[in-house]
Amino acid sequence: MSKLVVIGSSSMDLVVSAAKRPSAGETIIGDSFKTVPGGKGANQAVAAARLGADVLMIGCVGKDNYGKAILDNFKKNNVRIDYVEPVTHYDTGTAHIILAEGDNSIIVVKGANDLLTPDYIDKAKDVIQAADIVLIQQEIPEETVEHVAELCHSFQVPLLLNPAPAREISQNVIEKAAYLTPNEHEVTILFKGLTKDEALKKYPNKLFITEGKRGVRYFDGEKEVLVPSYKVEAVDTTGAGDTFNAAFAVALSEGKSVKESLQFANRAASLSVTKFGAQGGMPTRDEVERKLQA
Ligand code: RIB
Ligand code: NA
Predict the structure, then answer these.
(1) Each residue of 240-284: pLDDT tens digit?
(2) Are 290 and 250 in contact (CB under 8 A)?
């Protein structure tokens, strides 16, 4: 069992399904409303645990009902929560999601996730040092990502940065992370002035551009490789990226090759989109392996 540490957001997803998105000033009638656990960090932790890793989450929730529900959900999914602190004065983070016309649009209100500071991370230095891999995303303060990149680098623990949602990051973080997994939009913000191909060439076996339905692209040192994704009937693509990142990290930490790890991650992500909710449909290890053998 490999040891994964996930550092990131935990939120409650408030999901409205409707036939279309309202335009500015318009009111429409929707089809349904559901409340499900989400947040990129929590999603990645749950996905990795379902895939059989020993997962420890570092994060913050509010001392409110959403926070309680998120902690229960971690326990149900075997994610260790010694470093998920319920804080006062801040509400649990929320993500306001509209599912319409086969796609989602999301507004994130970070709430307690903003209290995941460098000082808070320092309390968990020992577990970070003991990890096989650390996973982090960008729904938490920028200086925390910077700090974690420094720590992981000094401990020689590989860091996978999923730079979502998009924001600029320092060259220091780019250099110190072991793996970067932007989508096509995020990569343009990360590497201003470089074309996609130039960026891939500059960071062989480190930069992985996720291209949704097409698959994942990287440079293997000699050539550009596209590892295709699997075709499925998508019900809800929310959290597909989180499943991908978690599965990729789990496979890498077990010593699988980059290519094999990407195939494993694509398979896991393709299963996750067949059910409603970011965490609905996140597969178990067995489910992914059965599909890979089929
Ligand atoms: O990556 C998907 C997640 O992003 C959702 O669960 C939602 O919380 C948003 O932040
Ligand atoms: Na899903």
Answers:
(1) 999 999 999 999 999 999 999 999 999 999 999 999 999 999 999
(2) no
**Domain locations along the chain:** 3-19+33-293
Name, in order, each residue with C-beta under 8 angstroms of 195's C-beta and a sequence gap of 6 or more. Answer: none
Instruction: Judge whether residue 294 has pLDDT over 90.
Output: no
Q: Which two tokens stand for residue 216?
A: 């994942």
Which ligand is closest to the CA of 113, given by its number?
1
Q: Indicate the CATH number for domain 3-19+33-293.
A: 3.40.1190.20
Ligand 1 close to Cβ of residue 95 (< 6 A)? yes
For the cut 90, the answer to whether the pLDDT of residue 102 exceeds it is no
- Active-site residue set: 242
Q: In what order do the strands lie in the sheet with 224-228?
A: 209-210, 215-219, 224-228
Distance CA 142, CA 146 (A): 6
269 touches ligand 1 (CB under 6 Å): no
Tell how far the Cα of 116 is from the centroid of ligand 2, in angstroms: 26
